[in-house]
Amino acid sequence: MQLPGNQRIAQLYTVPGLKITLLQQPLVWMDGPANLRHFDRQLEGITGRDVIVLPEMFTSGFAMEAAASSLAQDDVVNWMTAKAQQCNALIAGSVALQTESDSVNRFLLVEPGGTVHFYDKRHLFRMADEHLHYKAGNERVIVEWRGWRILPLVCYDLRFPVWSRNLNDYDLAIYVAGQLACTALSALAGITDSPRD
């Protein structure tokens, strides 16, 4: 860009490329420890990635009663922190959690240093009565990671573009969704499953 007097202005920001790994699997219904063990195997030997994305409700599968019998947030965060350190990457995915007052579908983003960011799903899927079991979030969250501003969103948020409107406040939106949606989107995009079983 040319300014008066032949001065030049540098780009507002320079963003390096990100290497992103998407993990999906048929989740073991309502069995957090089994799902974490499976993701342990999928994450073995993964290096050189910046972001690793797990599906919506990756510890339980999408279920209305998942929060009541879910793993504790501390247990999930400790597991995600260990994986973030092991892979030197941001680990992201949503889990059904019971908070002090409500159940939430919480998108967690955990850095290798242990910093935890979270976004509670705003738009609950009324056709499955999700709004009767979970409390909707009311805050957009932007996470800065390796020079990128990331907007985390969950599944049905996709149907509400005003919520994800880019006001030049983020560079990348990451939506997580349940297994079936991930499979359908992957098939449409021509993405094949991971070589790991």
From TrEMBL:
GO terms for molecular function: 2-oxoglutaramate amidase activity; omega-amidase activity. InterPro entries: C-N_Hydrolase (IPR003010), C-N_Hydrolase_sf (IPR036526), Omega-amidase_YafV (IPR052737), UPF0012_CS (IPR001110). PROSITE patterns: CN_HYDROLASE, UPF0012. Residues 18-197 form the CN hydrolase domain. Belongs to the carbon-nitrogen hydrolase superfamily. NIT1/NIT2 family. This is CN hydrolase domain-containing protein. It comes from Escherichia coli.
